[in-house]
C-alpha cells in the first residue's frame, strides 16, 4: 500500500519543476507546466496520453508551448506526468479506505450483555463534504432568449453556457461521455479561446452542445474556423499515411460511425472524383505514372528528383544517363538556349527555360522506352544504356519502333507523337539542324540487336547529310500520316464543363473564391491554414482578373508599398512581371513586359507591356495587404525569400519557397479539390460536377464568358492576351448554341429603347 508520505503533493511538483524545468524552459513556460500539473492533480484527471507516452501535441495545444520544444525535453516531462497519473489512480481507491477507517473509528464496542446485538445497524456513514453536484438536465431552459453573436468561438461557447445558467465544468459533465476520452481541460481551453475543435470526436461534441442549447447545426463550427481534419481521426488503418492526409479533408465527420459498405463508397468517390479526377485521361495518366521509365540527365536545370533508397534503379525504372549521353544532352541545350549560336553553327529558334526543361524530360522518356526491359510492364527494348546516343535519331527504323511502341501503350496516336517527330525533323533539317551539323556523333553509334545493324551504321557514317535528309523526309511523312488518324485523348474543357456551360462562366467560377472566404480558418488559432487559404483565394482571384498563363502568374515579383518599383528594363531582363502599388491610380497594378509572354511576338502586344489595375472588389485589396503583411512571411519561415508574390509553404527541410511549374499546379489543384468540387458527403464545395484542374483552365473560363456575352473573338482574345484566330480555333465550340441568343439580345435592345 502506498503510504501517505509518498503521495504526490503540490510542494513536490513545485520542487520538481524548479529542479528539472527551470534550466531548460522559460519562466513563463515553467509556470504553465506547473499550473497544468497542479490542475490535473486537484481535479483528479489523467494527463493526455497517446499510447504509453505523453501526447505532446495535445499538451502543446493546451499550454500554447511550441511542440518541438516539448518533444526535445520529453525525458524531463514524462516522469512528472507519469507521477500525476499514478496519483490519480491512487486517489480513485483512497475514498473507500478512508470511509472504512472512519466507520471503524465510530463503531461503539459492544458490552458483554449485548454481544448478540449488531452494533453497525444504526450507524450513519458521514456524507462527502461540499455542495451536492447540480443535476444534469438534457435540454436546459435559457435564461435569456435574445443575444448578439460574438466574433469568436470561445466567446460564443461561454455566452451560451451563461445563457443557460451553466459553467463549462457543468457543460462538460452534461455532454462528454467516458468513452469519448476528452478531458475537461479541452472544453476549458475552448472557452478561453486557446484551442479550437479539430478532431472528429471534438466536432461530435460540438454537435451535442448545439443540440442541448437548441442552436442551428454547424453554429459553433462556423465560428471556430476549423481548417482541416486530423488524419488520425478516421479508421483508415489499411491506408498509407500520405493518402490518409489527402483523404482526411474530404471525409464526413461521422465517417467512423457509418456502415462499412458506405465507408467504402465514400472512399471510392473521393479517390476517383476529387483526388484523381474521373476522366479517361486522368485514369490513363494514373496508370502510366505507376509504370516508371526514363533516363535521367544530370545537366537539366532545376531541382533533381531523388530516387527512393528503398528501390533499385531497375525497380524504379529510372536509369541515370551515361556520361556520353549526358554530354550530348548538355551540348544540345547549349545550342538551343545560348544567346549566340556556336561559331560555324546555324539554328532556327531558341528554347526558353521551361521549354528546355520540358524537352529534357521528353528526351528522357524517349530513351527510357529503349532501356526498359521487355519483360517489364513498360515492355521496352532492353537496350544497354551505354549504347544510347542522340545519333540513334538519324535512323527511320528507330523512330518507327518507338511509334509502334507508343501505339501499343495507348491504343491510338495523339499530338504527342507529332510533336516528337517535329523535333526529329528539326534536328535533321538542312542548314539549321543540330544533328545535321554534328556528323562527328556518328562515331558514337553501335549496333543494337533487332534495330540497328553494322551495315546501317556504315551507311550513315559514309554519307551523313544524305542520312539526315532521309530522316527529315521520313519524319515529315509520318507527321502527315499520324495527323490524319490522331485522336484527342485529353479534353482540356472536360474538368470545367459545368462552369463553361453556365450562363455566366466567370460568375460560376467566382463561387469557388466565395467558398474560400466562407471557410476561412481563424488566423489566431490556425495561422498556417489561414495563410494557405488566403493564398488560394488570391491565386484564383488574380487569375480570374488577368487571365495570365501559369508561368506569368507564378513568376510575378512583389514590390511592397513604399519601395521603388523594379524598372521595366530590368523586368525585361528577368522576363517576368511585378505586382506593385500605383500611387497614380491608387490601386494594385500588375506590369509584365511583353518578352515575358509565350506569344511575345503576336499582334496582341506590339512590343508594349501588359498593364492592369486590379479592382478593389470582394475583399481583394484587403487580403492582398494581409498576405503581404503577415501570411506570406509565415509560410516562408526560415527558407530563402524568392521575391515572388506567391510562395509555397516551406517545410523544415526547404531551402527555397519558390514555386515551380509542378508545385504551382498542385497548389491550384488542391484549392479546387477543397473549395471547388461539391462533396455530397460533407456538403462542402461550390460547384457540382466540377473536377480537379490547373491554372490554365481559368483562361478558358474568361474567353468563354466574353464569347458568350459578346460573340466577339477579338474581345475574347483581349482577356487572355492572345489573337482572335487562336480564340476561334479553341473556343468556337461554345459559341454556336449562343449565337441566336446574342443576336436576339442585340435586337431586343431596339425594342426596349422604343
Model description:
- Strand 1 and strand 2 form a beta hairpin.
- The strands form three sheets. A four-stranded mixed sheet has the order 5-6-7-8.
- By secondary structure, it is mainly alpha-helical.
- It has 31 helices and eight strands.
- The radius of gyration is 35 Å and the shape is globular.
- The protein folds into five domains: 101 residues, no CATH class; 74 residues, 434 Repressor (Amino-terminal Domain), CATH 1.10.260; 38 residues; 193 residues, no CATH class; 239 residues, Intergrase catalytic core (hpI Integrase, Chain A), CATH 1.10.443.
- 51% of the residues lie in helices and 4% in strands.
Structural class: mainly alpha
> What percentage of the residues does DSSP assign to strands (E)?
under 5%
Strand order of the largest sheet: 5-6-7-8
- Count of DSSP E strands? 8
Count of folded domains: 5
How far apart are the first and last residues' alpha carbons, in Å? Answer: 102 Å
Number of DSSP helical runs: 31
Radius of gyration: 35 Å
Q: Major sheet, described briefly?
A: 4 strands, mixed
Shape: globular
CATH fold-level name of the largest domain: hpI Integrase, Chain A
Please give the oligomerization state of what you see: single chain
Return the average pLDDT rounded to an integer.
Answer: 82
CATH homology superfamily name of the largest domain: Intergrase catalytic core
> Which residue ranges are poorly predicted, with pLDDT under 50 across at least 5 consecutive positions?
95-126, 302-315
Q: In CATH's first tier, which class of the largest domain applies?
A: Mainly Alpha
Range of helix content: 40-55%
The CATH level-2 architecture of the largest domain is identified as Orthogonal Bundle
Amino acid at each position: 500500500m502506498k503510504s501517505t508520505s509518498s503521495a504526490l503533493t503540490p510542494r513536490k511538483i513545485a520542487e520538481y519543476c524548479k529542479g528539472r524545468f527551470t534550466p531548460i524552459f522559460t519562466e513563463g513556460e515553467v509556470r504553465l507546466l506547473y499550473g497544468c500539473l497542479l490542475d490535473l492533480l486537484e481535479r483528479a484527471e489523467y494527463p493526455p496520453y497517446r499510447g504509453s507516452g505523453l501526447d505532446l501535441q495535445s499538451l502543446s495545444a493546451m499550454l500554447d508551448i511550441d511542440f518541438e520544444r516539448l518533444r526535445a525535453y520529453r525525458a524531463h516531462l514524462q516522469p512528472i506526468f507519469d507521477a500525476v497519473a499514478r496519483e490519480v489512480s491512487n486517489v480513485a481507491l483512497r475514498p473507500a479506505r478512508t470511509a472504512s477507517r472512519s466507520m471503524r473509528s465510530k463503531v461503539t464496542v459492544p458490552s458483554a450483555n449485548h454481544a448478540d446485538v449488531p452494533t453497525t445497524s444504526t450507524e450513519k456513514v458521514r456524507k462527502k463534504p461540499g455542495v451536492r453536484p447540480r443535476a444534469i438536465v438534457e435540454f436546459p431552459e435559457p435564461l435569456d432568449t435574445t443575444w448578439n453573436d460574438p466574433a469568436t468561438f470561445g466567446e460564443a461557447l461561454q455566452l451560451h453556457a451563461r445563457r443557460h445558467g451553466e459553467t463549462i465544468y457543468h457543460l462538460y459533465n452534461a455532454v462528454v461521455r467516458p468513452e469519448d476520452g476528452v478531458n475537461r481541460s479541452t472544453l476549458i481551453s475552448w472557452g478561453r479561446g486557446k484551442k479550437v475543435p479539430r478532431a472528429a470526436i471534438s466536432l461530435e461534441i460540438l454537435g451535442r452542445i448545439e443540440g442541448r442549447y437548441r442552436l442551428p447545426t454547424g453554429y459553433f463550427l462556423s465560428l471556430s474556423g476549423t481548417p482541416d481534419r486530423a488524419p488520425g481521426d478516421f479508421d483508415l488503418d489499411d491506408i498509407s499515411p500520405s493518402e490518409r492526409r489527402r483523404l482526411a479533408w474530404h471525409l464526413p465527420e461521422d465517417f467512423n460511425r457509418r456502415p462499412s459498405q458506405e465507408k467504402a463508397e465514400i472512399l471510392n468517390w473521393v479517390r476517383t472524383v476529387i483526388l484523381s479526377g474521373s476522366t479517361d485521361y486522368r485514369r490513363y495518366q494514373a496508370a502510366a505514372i505507376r509504370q516508371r521509365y526514363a533516363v535521367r540527365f544530370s545537366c537539366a536545370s532545376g531541382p533533381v528528383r531523388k530516387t527512393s533508397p528503398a528501390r533499385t534503379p531497375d525497380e524504379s525504372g529510372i536509369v541515370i544517363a551515361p556520361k556520353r549521353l549526358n554530354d550530348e544532352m548538355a551540348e544540345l541545350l547549349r545550342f538551343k538556349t545560348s544567346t549566340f549560336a556556336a561559331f560555324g553553327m546555324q539554328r532556327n529558334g531558341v528554347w526558353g527555360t521551361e521549354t528546355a526543361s520540358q524537352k529534357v524530360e521528353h528526351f528522357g522518356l524517349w530513351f527510357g522506352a529503349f532501356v526498359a526491359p521487355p519483360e517489364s510492364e513498360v515492355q521496352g527494348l532492353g537496350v544497354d544504356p551505354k549504347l544510347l546516343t542522340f545519333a540513334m535519331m538519324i535512323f527511320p527504323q528507330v523512330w518507327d519502333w518507338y511509334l509502334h511502341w507508343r501505339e501499343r501503350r495507348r491504343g491510338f496516336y495523339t499530338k504527342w507523337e507529332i510533336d516528337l517527330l517535329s523535333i526529329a525533323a528539326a534536328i535533321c533539317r538542312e542548314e539549321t539542324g543540330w544533328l545535321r551539323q554534328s556528323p562527328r556523333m556518328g562515331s558514337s553509334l553501335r549496333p543494337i540487336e533487332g534495330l540497328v545493324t553494322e551495315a546501317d551504321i556504315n551507311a550513315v557514317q559514309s554519307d551523313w547529310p544524305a542520312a539526315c535528309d532521309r530522316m527529315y523526309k521520313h519524319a515529315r511523312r509520318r507527321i502527315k500520316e499520324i495527323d490524319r488518324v490522331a485522336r484527342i485523348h485529353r479534353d482540356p474543357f472536360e474538368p470545367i464543363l459545368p462552369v463553361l456551360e453556365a450562363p455566366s462562366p466567370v460568375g460560376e467560377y467566382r463561387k469557388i473564391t466565395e467558398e474560400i472566404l466562407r471557410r476561412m480558418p481563424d488566423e489566431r488559432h490556425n495561422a498556417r491554414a489561414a495563410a494557405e487559404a488566403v493564398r488560394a483565394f488570391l491565386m484564383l482571384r488574380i487569375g480570374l482578373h488577368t487571365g495570365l498563363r501559369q508561368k506569368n502568374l507564378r513568376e510575378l515579383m512583389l514590390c511592397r508599398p513604399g519601395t521603388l518599383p523594379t524598372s521595366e528594363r530590368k523586368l525585361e531582363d528577368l522576363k517576368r512581371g511585378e505586382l506593385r502599388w500605383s500611387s497614380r491610380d491608387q490601386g494594385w497594378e500588375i506590369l509584365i513586359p511583353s518578352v515575358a509572354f509565350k506569344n511575345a511576338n503576336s499582334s496582341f502586344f506590339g512590343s508594349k507591356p501588359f498593364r492592369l489595375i486590379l479592382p478593389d472588389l470582394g475583399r481583394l485589396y484587403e487580403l492582398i495587404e494581409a498576405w503581404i503583411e503577415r501570411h506570406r512571411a509565415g509560410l516562408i519561415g526560415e527558407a530563402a525569400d524568392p521575391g515572388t508574390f506567391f510562395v509555397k509553404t516551406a517545410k523544415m527541410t526547404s531551402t527555397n519557397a519558390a514555386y515551380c511549374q509542378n508545385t504551382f499546379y498542385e497548389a491550384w489543384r488542391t484549392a479546387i479539390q477543397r473549395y471547388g468540387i461539391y462533396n455530397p458527403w460533407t456538403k462542402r464545395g461550390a460547384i457540382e460536377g466540377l473536377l480537379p484542374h490547373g491554372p490554365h483552365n481559368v483562361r478558358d473560363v474568361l474567353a468563354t464568358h466574353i464569347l458568350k456575352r459578346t460573340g466577339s473573338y477579338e474581345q475574347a482574345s483581349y482577356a487572355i492576351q492572345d489573337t482572335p484566330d487562336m480564340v476561334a480555333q479553341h473556343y468556337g465550340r461554345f459559341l454556336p448554341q449562343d449565337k441566336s441568343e446574342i443576336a436576339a439580345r442585340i435586337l431586343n435592345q431596339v425594342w426596349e429603347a422604343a
